[in-house]
Amino acid sequence: MSKGKVYPINEIFYSLQGEGFHTGQPAIFVRFAGCNLSCPWCDTDYSTKGIMTIDDIIKEVENYESWHLILTGGEPSIQATSEFIQPFKDIGYFVHMETNGTREVAMNVDWITVSPKVKWQPQEDWIQLTGNELKLVYDGQSEEELQEIVDTTSFDHYYLQPEWNQFNGLKKFGPKVVEVAKRNPTWKVSLQTQKLLGIL
Q1: Radius of gyration of the chain (CA)
Q2: Engineered SS bond to 74: which of 46, 55, 99, 108, CB 3.0-4.6 Å?
Q3: What is the CATH number of the domain that holds 166?
Q4: In this structure, is residue 164 part of a structural domain?
Q5: Distance between CA 194 and CA 179 in Å, rounded?
Q6: Which residue range(s) make up the domain with 58?
Q7: Sign of CA dihedral 44, 46, 49, 52
Q8: More confident residue, 108 or 199
Q9: Which of 7, 102, 101, 104 is nearest to 53 (CA)?
């Protein structure tokens, strides 16, 4: 292992971005261990599987073809500071962070996806109120609630994503979210295509 500051990593893998604006984009995912929330329905194993330095991580991600690097978790903003991000930008990576929005994201991130965990995260706890895309899991929120979110945040793209629960959520909320988006066209529908395709 290289010397230097170490970071708790759950996994590093190469796949397609399955959600939001960059759906279908080949990308390298660096999943950090640890989260500042404890959502009981979370389907992500964010335990520490390894401790790595930036040099270790760069060596691993350079094995893959894409220059689109997605920092996810857990909650990546806990570990992925400007100091962590800059070496990747210096060698040409497009750095994309997926965050729950409860912490400010480093200024040198190229693309910010905020995905609040609304069941366990009141809107008043959101800190990152601006970014490239807001991706909200839709489980029946009222159109008034959705409009309030648009009015109090500033994102380039707003996505509603039907709650996923072994297709039950998609069957339950899919048709409704289509109608909600049609009536409120600021919002677009995002599906978890990685699950539909059966990939990571």
Answers
A1: 17
A2: 46
A3: 3.20.20.70
A4: yes
A5: 23
A6: 6-197
A7: positive
A8: 108
A9: 7
Helix (H, G, I), strand (E, B) or coil at 123: helix
Is 40 exposed, middle or buried, given 0-12, 13-18 or 19+ CB atoms closer than 10 A? exposed
**Residue 157 burial by CB count (10 A; 0-12/13-18/19+): exposed, middle or buried?**
middle
Band of residue 1 on the pLDDT scale cut at 50, 70, 90: very low
Greater pLDDT, 198 or 136: 136
Specify if 181 maps to a domain. yes
The total number of structural domains in the chain stands at: 1
Assess if residue 1 is contained within a domain: no
Give the bridge partners for 14, in sequence order: 28
Q: CA 90 to CA 86: how far, in whole Å?
A: 6
**193 occurs within a structural domain:** yes
| Helices 168-183, 143-152: inter-axial angle, 10-degree rounding | 70
Cβ contacts of 85 within 8 Å, gap of 6 or more: 71, 95, 106, 108, 109
